[in-house]
């Protein structure tokens, strides 16, 4: 078994802190502090930070890095890619669906409907993450999982933000309902189409909100304004 390098150890630790929201957009990590924390010279720390910049998770800031928040242009670039890849994951998930996986998704879906009705955004956000994680992991495609997880991490704060906009939780639940119908039928193409519409809907709502809140804090509630609506979710299996 190969020994993990110091650079890899720092990279994985900072990556996990971003994923776990220990480090949030705008926060700064300093090279010297990381070197001291992990008992390393600055060379492996610098290598780890360079990888984080290349992954789009951080940006250079003095002698350290600042956790990045995607720009509007980056949102326009990333979301169409996520739409295609998450759509593929949904198709593969549907085609390999087992009774136990379907039961897990049913439970998460039902829970999110209750959370939406109760206005419990924090719980909905966490359950939504689990729901999408189950779908992704059931694709059984390691390269797809790795790529989607990296893109999700870049947009983590924004995805949490868009679920706090207006009636987005209710809309998301409706889109999940269409997706679940495809999963119950083990209909891969319908699941792919439903997931792509779901991701595209979130993209539209997010861009509209960001255009209104040019300078926003992703940890605060969105600026009050007209609710952002999309078309009612369409079940692809019912289209002519």
From TrEMBL:
Keyword tags: DNA-binding, Transcription, Transcription regulation
Coiled-coil annotated spans: none
Database matches in Pfam families: FCD (PF07729), GntR (PF00392)
Molecular functions (GO terms): DNA binding; DNA-binding transcription factor activity
Domain HTH gntR-type residue range list: 4-70
Gene3D superfamilies tied to this protein: GntR ligand-binding domain-like (1.20.120.530), Winged helix-like DNA-binding domain superfamily/Winged helix DNA-binding domain (1.10.10.10)
Basic and acidic residues bias (residue ranges): 229-240
Protein name: GntR family transcriptional regulator
Organism from which the protein derives: Tessaracoccus antarcticus
Higher taxonomy: Bacteria, Bacillati, Actinomycetota, Actinomycetes, Propionibacteriales
């Amino acid at each position: 078994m190969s020994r993990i390098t110091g650079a890899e150890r720092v990279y994985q630790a900072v990556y996990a802190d971003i994923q776990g929201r220990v480090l949030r957009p705008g926060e700064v990590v300093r090279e010297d502090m990381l070197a001291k924390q992990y008992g390393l010279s600055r060379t492996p720390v610098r290598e780890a930070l360079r990888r984080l910049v290349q992954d789009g998770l951080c940006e250079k800031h003095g002698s350290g890095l600042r956790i990045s928040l995607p720009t509007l242009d980056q949102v326009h670039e990333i979301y169409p890619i996520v739409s295609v890849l998450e759509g593929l994951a949904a198709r593969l998930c549907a085609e390999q669906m087992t009774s136990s996986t379907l039961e897990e998704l049913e439970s998460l879906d039902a829970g999110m409907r209750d959370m939406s009705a109760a206005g419990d955004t924090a719980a909905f956000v966490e359950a939504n993450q689990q729901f999408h994680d189950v779908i992704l992991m059931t694709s059984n495609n390691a390269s797809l999982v790795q790529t989607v997880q990296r893109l999700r991490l870049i947009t983590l704060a924004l995805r949490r933000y868009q679920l706090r906009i207006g009636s987005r939780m209710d809309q998301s639940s409706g889109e999940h309902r269409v997706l679940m119908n495809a999963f119950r039928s083990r209909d891969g193409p319908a699941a792919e189409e439903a997931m792509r519409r779901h991701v595209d809907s979130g993209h539209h709502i997010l861009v509209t909100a960001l255009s209104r809140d040019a300078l926003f804090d992703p940890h605060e509630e969105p600026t009050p304004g007209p609710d952002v609506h999309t078309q009612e979710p369409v079940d692809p299996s019912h289209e002519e």
